[in-house]
Amino acid sequence: FSMKTGRPAKPTTLKLLAGNPGKRPINTREPVTGEIDLMAPPELSEAAVAHWNRNAPMLAKSGVLKQSDRDLLSAYCEAYAAFRDSIDNGKINVPLLGQLRQMLGEMGMTPAARTRIIVDKPAEKEDGKARFFG
Description:
By secondary structure, the protein is mainly alpha-helical.
């Protein structure tokens, strides 16, 4: 038995969105876990549900979030709610902040993670006059 050490592997979706900058082979046999159920899990706290409802649709629309990621997003939402509570009570939970940052990176939700992601921009609506007057 041996364990791989070093950096955790980047999810294939994030590699593809980034244009596969390392040009390493893409895993074409990665398990397909299906589209995520956007309904917040019933076990989430009220504060975590609000955060879920703000983030799950955005992540699903970007193609990053799949059904198998529900637990990670749930954990992130609860951790975020606990972090906000620590701030509201006047004491920032610094170790929790580190965990939040790590989870954000796993889901491509930090500025540094986004710099490695390339998405197609939606086509701009063409103004009728712009066709003729450029």
